[in-house]
Amino acid sequence: MKKYAILVNTCDKFEDCWIPFFKLFKIYWPDYNGKIYLNTEYKDFSYSGLNIIPLKVAEKKQDADKITWSECLKRALEKIDEDILLYMQEDYFLKGSVKNDLVEKYSNLMNNAQNLHCIHLTDQSVKSAGGSKYENLDNVEMNQRYRISCQAALWQKDILASYLRSYESAWDFEEFGSKRSSKMKHNFYVVNRNWVKLGEYEIIPYIFTGIVQGRWKEEVVDLFEKHDISVDYAVRGFLSERVEKPFHKKVQYRFNKIPNQIKNELELLKLKNR
After folding, report:
1. Which residues contact 124 (CB under 8 A, 6 or more apart)?
2. Which side of the chain, N or C, has fewer Cβ within a 10 Å radius?
3. What is the value of pTM for the model shown?
């Protein structure tokens, strides 16, 4: 049986998450013994007892800030051998034991049935459109704002790559990629919400998400203290301390999105006419 691998999508500016992430990973997922690809730009990283492969997707250190989120992910996928990936991010801090048998069950299912393109493993990602022929899996609703989500999910690597556009941010990828998915019509599934429920029964229990808008979510503090993880919270500050963006910044953000919105609408027209 082909093995799946884990991809931890990150960037070097979030290296303060790596030690907490992998310390908790080792505690809460001791029976995972496969590869863990860490999508760094140019930095190395290792953690005792884990098979971590830093991908170092920037050709030069000075190029790191010039590469978009989607381009970094695209380059990462090109460096990975496995066909099935569990997508995670560096601030998805594990807080309970991962049900390794279920992750393996669904990765095996994807290997055996090539028409399963993505399986969302949490109830915190996408909307369900009702049951499927697969046990405890629902079809993902076709027309929704975020049919594509960056939360924990098993992906066919080539399908994930097919949604990436090098000019897009992570937010663009979720928003515009979701629109593309309604035309490309790959088979996306999500765990049944009557079975997997946040705080009650989770396949991969983790904090959704540990860093928001560049600041620590307060939820991490107790988890880190419990496991003797030391972090200088003053460097990032906490989410509750953030200052509201001034109006002109919000307008500028909207204005900057226009070129990508136009590109997406043109692509949707092409996909519609196929």
Report:
1. 151, 198, 208
2. C
3. 0.92
Distance CA 55, CA 133 (A): 37
pLDDT at 62: 66
What tens digit of pLDDT does each residue of 212-268 get?
A: 999 999 999 999 999 999 999 999 999 998 877 776 666 677 767 788 878 777 777
| Strand 35-39 to 5-9 pairing | parallel
> Distance between CA atoms of 266 and 238, rounded to whole angstroms?
40
Amino acid 177 reads G
Q: What is the reported pLDDT for 268?
A: 75
CA-based end-to-end distance of the chain: 36
Query: 3-state SS of the chain: helix, strand, coil percent to 5?
Result: 40, 20, 45
Cα–Cα separations (whole angstroms), residue 270 to 63, 180, 274: 33, 10, 6
Query: If residue 76 lies in a helix (H) or strand (E), which one and from where to where?
Result: helix 69-78
Indicate the angle between helix axes 170-184 and 69-78, nearest 10 degrees. 60
